[in-house]
Write a structure and sequence with these properties.
Layout lengths: L8 H4 E8 L4 E8 L2 H8 L6 H8 L7 E5 L4 E7 L19 H4 L5
Antiparallel strand pairs: 1-2, 2-4, 3-4
Length: 107
């Protein structure tokens, strides 16, 4: 029996991570293995403001996407749902925000 399942971004990338970008912003980074993988994630038809907004329940106008071809990296930033360290903050370092992004499957 073969596995016909397509790999997720997390499986295709060298690393997918999220972190604080100050107390009010989260930044996620997709470090791809090569130019081919980068081309997949940099494609605006695959990852764009609307896709990120749906994944994270955001306004697309609040999403910033930076494509860095020289490094095979796509960086995504958006406002934190609550301020870092506030009473309702469940991830002070924003270290788990990347999980839904890493689970995406490219076509």
């Amino acid at each position: 029996m073969t596995d016909d399942r397509k790999p997720t971004l997390g499986e295709r990338a060298l690393e997918v991570r999220s972190k604080n970008a100050g107390p009010f912003w989260v930044t996620m980074e997709l470090f791809m293995r090569d130019a081919e993988g980068y081309a997949t994630v940099a494609d605006e038809g695959f990852i764009n403001e609307e896709v990120i907004a749906r994944l994270y329940d955001l306004d697309p106008a609040d999403v910033q996407i930076f494509r860095i071809p020289a490094l095979n990296v796509v960086k995504i930033s958006y406002p934190r749902p609550v301020a870092q360290g506030s009473l309702r903050d469940r991830d002070v370092h924003a270290g788990q925000h990347h999980v839904p992004l890493a689970a995406l499957v490219p076509e």
